[in-house]
């Protein structure tokens, strides 16, 4: 029985040019060696190819096939005096034209750019092949596919925040809206906004303001809590507020939330006389964005 023994094994990055010997030992004193030349072996060359995807490719693995519209063409270097009718007449020789748009610089001069919407991809291709580098009214125009026309999406409509407003009277003339909000909020985050009302001509504080809460419950709790409290050296009076629309040019102390009677369906009621402020002691009902709520007993 022959015994296979590895005599020499090299571990290098490149093949060694030395021969590797294997000996078959027998029980007899005789031995026979086999010499193998490594250069006689052909090893296949392996290569590793790596591909790194960009962030955009990872986010959008499928690229839109129609990056450019197949029916919308862009014509460049058109004469500045060309009209949409001129461009339409030129392109109608090669198919149905649905729409022509000229990028205008002035009313009587365009920017040399025209967008043409053809009736079908075949008609657009025919117009492209025939009008590319075509001389039109002394100018060589360039025609290519244009990107699809983007439809303008209207901005999302923000829902109106429903607020419950408190009318605060007998304010210090030094009080600001920030001071008023911090006093009523006390770090709770329940106050939506606060406002101090000023008179016009000349501009001076009127001595009252408004504080808005998110819920009726919070507003009622604040009404009971802050009634008669001392704020910047003066005891304040708190009541339920009601909105009314400020009249332009009126010199009276008015705000979008100044207390005033409103008629049904948003019709304006009679406003205080010019130059006079609404009585600070007049109670009013709790309102929700200008609509009267049920009176709280």
The main sheet comes to: 5 strands, antiparallel
Mean pLDDT score, rounded? Answer: 71
The parts where pLDDT drops under 50 for at least 5 residues are 1-28, 55-65, 244-297
Number of strands: 16
Tally of contiguous helical segments: 5
Order of helices and strands: EEEHEHEEHEEEHEEHEEEEE
CATH class of the largest domain: Alpha Beta
Structural class category: alpha+beta
Question: CA-to-CA gap between the ends?
Answer: 114 Å
- In which range does the helix fraction lie? 10-25%
According to CATH, the fold-level topology of the largest domain is Alpha-Beta Plaits
Fourth CATH level, the homologous superfamily of the largest domain: RRM (RNA recognition motif) domain
Percent strand equals: 25-35%
Radius of gyration: 43 Å
Q: Shape from CA axes? A: elongated
* Assigned CATH architecture of the largest domain: 2-Layer Sandwich
Strand order of the largest sheet: 5-6-4-8-7
* Integer tally of domains: 3
GO molecular function, one term: mRNA binding
Region (Disordered): 245-297
Keywords: RNA-binding
Organism: Glycine max
Topology diagram in text:
Blueprint: E1 3-6, E2 20-25, E3 31-36, H1 55-59, E4 72-76, H2 84-91, E5 97-106, E6 109-118, H3 121-131, E7 134-136, E8 139-145, E9 164-169, H4 177-185, E10 191-199, E11 204-213, H5 216-226, E12 230-231, E13 234-235, E14 237-240, E15 287-288, E16 291-292
Antiparallel strand pairs: 1-2, 2-3, 4-6, 4-8, 5-6, 7-8, 9-11, 9-14, 10-11, 12-13, 15-16
């Amino acid at each position: 029985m022959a015994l296979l023994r590895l005599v020499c094994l090299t571990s290098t990055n490149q093949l060694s040019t030395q021969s590797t010997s294997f000996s078959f030992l027998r029980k007899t004193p005789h031995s026979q060696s086999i010499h193998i030349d490594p250069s006689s072996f052909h090893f296949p060359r392996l290569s590793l190819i790596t591909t790194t995807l960009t962030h955009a490719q990872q986010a959008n693995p499928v690229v839109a096939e129609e990056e450019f519209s197949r029916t919308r063409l862009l014509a460049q270097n058109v004469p500045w005096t060309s009209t949409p009718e001129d461009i339409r007449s030129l392109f109608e020789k090669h198919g149905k034209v649905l729409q022509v748009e000229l990028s205008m610089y002035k009313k009587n001069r365009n920017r040399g750019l025209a967008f043409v919407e053809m009736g079908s991809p075949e008609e657009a291709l025919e117009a492209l092949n025939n009008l590319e580098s075509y001389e039109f009214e002394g100018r060589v125009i360039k025609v290519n596919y244009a990107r699809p026309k983007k439809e303008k999406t209207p901005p999302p409509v923000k829902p109106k925040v429903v607020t419950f407003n408190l009318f605060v009277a007998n304010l210090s003339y030094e009080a600001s809206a920030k001071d008023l909000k911090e006093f009523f909020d006390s770090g709770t985050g329940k106050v939506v906004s606060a406002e101090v009302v000023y008179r016009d001509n000349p501009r001076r504080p009127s001595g009252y303001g408004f504080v808005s809460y998110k819920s009726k419950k919070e507003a009622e709790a604040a009404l009971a809590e802050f009634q008669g409290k001392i704020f910047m050296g003066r005891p304040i009076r708190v009541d339920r507020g009601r909105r009314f629309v400020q009249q332009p040019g009126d010199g009276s102390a008015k705000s979008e939330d100044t207390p005033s009677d409103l008629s049904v369906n948003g019709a304006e009621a009679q406003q205080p006389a010019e130059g006079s402020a609404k009585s600070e002691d007049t109670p009013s009902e709790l309102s929700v964005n200008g609509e009267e709520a049920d009176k709280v007993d």
